[in-house]
Amino acid sequence: MSEIELVDVRAGYGRAAPVLRGFSVAVPAGTVVCLVGPNGAGKSTVLKVASGLLSPRSGRVLVGGKDLTGAGPQRMLAEGVALVLQGHSVFREMTVEENVLLGGYTLHDRTEKTRRARFVKELLPVVGERWNSLAGLLSGGQQKQVEFARSLMVDPKVVLLDEPSMGLDPKATSTIFDQVVRMRDAGTAVLLVEQNARRALETADLGCVLDLGRVHISGPAADLLADPQLGELYLGGRPAV
Ligand SMILES: Nc1ncnc2c1ncn2[C@@H]1O[C@H](COP(=O)(O)OP(=O)(O)OP(=O)(O)O)[C@@H](O)[C@H]1O
Questions:
Q1: What is the whole-number distance in angstroms between the Cα of residue 8 and the centre of ligand 1?
Q2: Helices 170-185 and 140-152: crossing angle, nearest 10°?
Q3: ipTM above 0.90?
Q4: Which of 9, 45, 216 to mutate to test the pocket of ligand 1 (most atoms within 8 A of CB)?
Q5: Could you give the residue ranges of the DSSP H alpha helices within 104-196?
Q6: N or C terminus of the chain: which is more exposed, having fewer CB within 10 Å?
Q7: pLDDT of 102 above 50
Q8: Chain segment 193-202, per-residue pLDDT in tens
Q9: Which residues contact 92 (CB under 8 A, 6 or more apart)?
């Protein structure tokens, strides 16, 4: 069963024509699914629908098979869907510890909070190493890992990542994608939106190309990477031989 599934979703903003026009995607347990597509295709809109920030006009949102269409962000988080926003959202004047523990504000059991904090420090070593530093003193890539750690405090079923490599140099990008794999291996499914499509598909298990509000093609990420037409259209050139 999928951790999260969007089925035939139509969604958009105000009176404008819908951005998503019958879009479907499923994120099976234990997988990284990568969503790619041209600028403005609606990738972030998919994450807004999946996290409950935007209600679909029609279609369904299922979490672990349960219909949660129209549920708001608080409910979606409680049901195990965590969102890591695009750009940087750490509180720079607060320590790494304070930032990470904020992610567990809905946990009332102190022992559980401590257990989760220990888990995220082990999973993302830089978070543990810089635990007492001010978050604003960390590099962009390290701050992104603090955001990952914060989202993992509630032990989500699935984490939605909106362009985690944005603004990072190639080395930091590489670390971030390695951490995405570690998150998956530790039991959290991931729905990843990326501009850096080729690199993201190399990391993901499954890929989905969004264009004109619908799924253009989806399947194993390796197959999408090897598809010459997709390479030309969406991945910035021919596939590497
Ligand atoms: N809050 C909003 N109000 C009105 N229109 C919006 C809003 N957010 C996004 N849009 C419009 O919805 C469309 C899809 O935007 P979205 O951000 O989902 O695309 P994207 O694929 O994530 O783009 P990018 O790769 O550039 O980040 C765009 O035409 C955008 O202008």
A1: 19
A2: 20
A3: yes
A4: 45
A5: 110-123, 125-129, 140-152, 170-185
A6: C
A7: yes
A8: 998 888 899 9
A9: 134, 135, 136
